[in-house]
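Q: Structure tokens for this one, please.
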Amino acid sequence: MTQYGCCEYWREHTIPEVFIAAATRFAERPAIREKQGNTWQTATWTDYARQVRHASLGLAALGLHRGDRVCIMGENSAHWIYADMAIMCAGGASVGIYPTSSPEQIEYFLSDCGARYIFVSNQDLLDKVLSVREPLSHLEKIIVFDETIKTTSETSNVLTFRALADIGRKANEGDKNAFNELASSVTRDDLAVIIYTSGTTGPPKGAMLTHRNLMFEVAVHDKFLHITEGDDLISFLPLSHIAERMLTSLRPMMHGARVTFSEGPEKLAGEIRDVSPHVFFAVPRLWEKFHAAIAAAMDKVSPFQRWSYHTALGIGIRAARYKYNARKVPIFLAGIHSITDRIVMQRVRAKIGMGRAHFVICGAAPVSPDLLMWMAAIGLDVRETYGLTENGSVAAIAPLSKRKLGSVGLAPLDSEIKVADDGEIVIKGDHVFAGYINKPDATCETLKHGWLHTGDLGRFDDEGFLFITGRKKDIIITSGGKNISPAQIENELKFHSLIADSMVIGDGRKYLTCLIMLDPVNAEEYAAKNDIFHEDFADLSRNPQIFSEIENEISRVNEKFSRVEQIKKFRILDAPLKPGDDALTPTMKLKRDVFAAQHKAFIETMYVEDNMAHDRA
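A: Here is the predicted structure, written as tokens:
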């Protein structure tokens, strides 16, 4: 009997093989749910497989060859993963492009990977591609999910997804074995996806991941992040990101989970409450927003309810400390914790949509230990992970039997993690990528003797648990020669509800300073609560009361660090960063060099005395 539940089974197969097996196993169980108009529509695994089979055969009929690159650009949707799976089943490599990309970025991605075909979701994205198509002689077809596109003389090589599927349906009617034969020709070492890095240190690089890489990761996920049949998931992070692709597209094949696609950021909070997912993955910033939402809600309840929450939170923190040290919670504390969790924290979890969560995942960016402790204290089973695009998502994770606050855990399964002499984390295993497409120099710099050089800094404790301490390229070296990792300081600051992001500065300087970005929503709520009159966001950012609140927070954070690591001055920016800003990657990470250049004059005001002294000298 085939051991579908065995990690080794998945590691020995390709994505198409496992997908076909899943479609047979789960058949009429729900696989996908998304809004069409005002109504939620559900597709079964049989429906899912039919869409993939026809689209895959359609691509083969168009002339897709093994190893060809096919791009997908659109918002998260059922059609996105239909196209993704169809490409891989046809032997191609799927390349996700963020829908927020500019025409220039789209041209770069299409040119760099040499895509022959691209799927787009709507007219706006079609127009973007058409605007840069002329120099892309290798781009043969544009396939659009939306059936209502406008046709012109420029759209002769444009077809809808339905038209592509009709081509494949006819091929399937002519040969019922065609799809299985096509999918079975894919090997474990064939290229499955290309994931473009966020480009924080230069032009994005296309990381090439094989079926072997991704199925290794699937086995890792299943051993430590188990999903069960019938679990509900919600997809909202970009599918161009490897972690979301793993959770939305690949993991549900193992156990038949149902994925609900979000309609967008403005509706996400309500959708999470409606779906109440059993497993939920989010970047730290979203968890920080959940914390801020609960903190704001506590300001509006009765004094007794506020006391109940903070009492339950304190008890939850005490219990969590035992768990984080793999120690049994004392009987009396466990009893009290059970009562306060049932009476108070169950409602808190329900308020943020986590009432049914088996576990939640916090990853893709550094996170404050205080935030992790809060999540554990409200009763969430928090799994912190560490990994890169270049290793298929998870490189380290805590074993279920033991976790440590602030540690990302141990290397899973048959992989290795070391910390090099210079403090850099290096990784080896079947999940390590094949290299960057068209960038041999970058590949040689990153892959050395089979070891993936991550660019991250870390340390091991005496039990072998890994702690991330910062980015190698972000290290600040003060004029006094002190090496400082800004990430840990910045993460502590971002735990405050008023602070959306921060950047610590000090390279070649005598002391550290910091640029603060306010959270627009929380800042407005703070202003309303404290009767702060302001004309606009810029006016609010200059308010003395806001300044004082941030100053107090910086003083609190400074106490956690040595004198040389403490922030001496700060400035609050008068405009929030928004998606599409040149200083932000598509995943909303700061491009430090770009951001610093944009605010160079502002930064210099914090070192004006040093500059004057230099001028006098």
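A few notes: The first helix runs from residue 7 to 11. The two ends are 82 Å apart (CA to CA).
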